[in-house]
Design brief:
Blueprint: H1 19-27, H2 33-48, H3 51-58, H4 62-71, H5 97-109, H6 115-126
Helix pairs in contact: 2-3
Amino acid sequence: MRGRIGVTMSRYGSIIPGSNFITSLSRQSKISRDAKKRLRWFDHYRKYGNARLTCRYFGISAQTFYRWKRRFDKYDLTTLEGLSCRPHRVRMPQISSHVVERIRELREQYPRLGRDKLAVLLHRETGRTIDRTEETGPQDSAGISNQAGFVSILGDQRA
């Protein structure tokens, strides 16, 4: 950037209060690449004072710009970080431990049977039907979920 001789200029200039601190955070990579991109949006906006011009310059929609503007706090750059899209509550059905143990026994007794046949055998013995919604999580070698209280009979025994 061009400036006076002997004066260090930053990409963010003196538009935002505490720009030296912001520059140091940016250089230390305390904020993500996307957060730096959003910070450039607001620096451009403060410099020219026109949101629509900023949106056109960076190729973003006005809705996106105003959403981030509402969230932005100039004293806390972590507000420019993206939030998780994961739902607050995730349904996690549980199966009793004796059913999990019985599935493990059936897997050991009949290693060549698939998940559908094992489900039929389990239904004949216990009268309980296991849905696919109850079959979640990573599996161990017996085809049982490693998470306590959860079961998965979906895994095939083929390697």
